[in-house]
Inverse folding.
């Protein structure tokens, strides 16, 4: 396969997953609606960083180190799942009013908090590394040039970041935030329940693998 086609196919396969519901989508959308564009962007940057880490591990054949480790895989699942349960319950209990004024850029502490939330949410599911490894197994060959492999990885990271930027741009718009404010309790309850359920599944799977 032509190296350029390899890069495009790799990024294209990854892009097909963007609209599938999951915790990564939820945390970016929720941060954008609740705290504005800058918060959503930092959360998205955290998610994209997690994708960069796991796709890098998948590219360099480190997926088996995590998945075959047994105990390490279980620990990542349990701790990551526990974090998602905690954050989901936090959303379920949230009831503060939403400030619809133009959200200022978050301070350093707030920016780090949003970035960390996106990063931990992405890293919470170590099965993601298997997903990236499966993409590379389809699109890359032993004779694929190193530059093409690097370009494929950079393309994945760029696509992940661009998608999250588009999400925060869309969901931080005033009309979206006004609608969110009217149904905040319901929407945060749904988001919290979804994150908690996904976290419980990770904890259960991690505990069962011990």
């Amino acid at each position: 396969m032509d190296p350029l086609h390899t890069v495009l196919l790799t990024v294209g396969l990854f892009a097909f997953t963007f609209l599938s519901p999951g915790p990564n989508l939820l945390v970016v959308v929720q941060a954008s609606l609740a705290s504005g564009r800058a918060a959503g962007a930092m959360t998205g940057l955290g998610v994209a960083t997690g994708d960069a880490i796991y796709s890098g591990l998948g590219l360099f054949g480190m997926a088996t180190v995590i998945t075959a480790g047994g105990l390490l895989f279980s620990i990542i699942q349990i701790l990551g799942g526990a974090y998602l349960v905690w954050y989901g319950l936090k959303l379920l209990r949230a009831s503060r009013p939403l400030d619809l004024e133009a959200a200022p850029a978050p301070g350093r502490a707030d920016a780090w908090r949003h970035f960390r939330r996106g990063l931990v949410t992405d890293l919470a599911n170590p099965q993601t590394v298997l997903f990236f490894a499966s993409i590379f197994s389809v699109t890359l060959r032993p004779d694929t040039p190193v530059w093409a492999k690097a370009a494929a990885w950079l393309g994945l990271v760029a696509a992940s970041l661009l998608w999250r930027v588009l999400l925060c741009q869309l969901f931080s718009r005033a009309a979206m935030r006004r609608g969110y404010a009217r149904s905040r309790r319901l929407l945060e309850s749904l988001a919290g329940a979804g994150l908690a359920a996904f976290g419980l599944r990770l904890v259960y799977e991690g505990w069962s693998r011990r």
Remarks:
- The chain has a mean pLDDT of 82.
- The two ends are 41 Å apart (CA to CA).
- Residues 3-95+109-209 form one domain.
- Residues 41 and 198 are 23 Å apart (CA to CA).
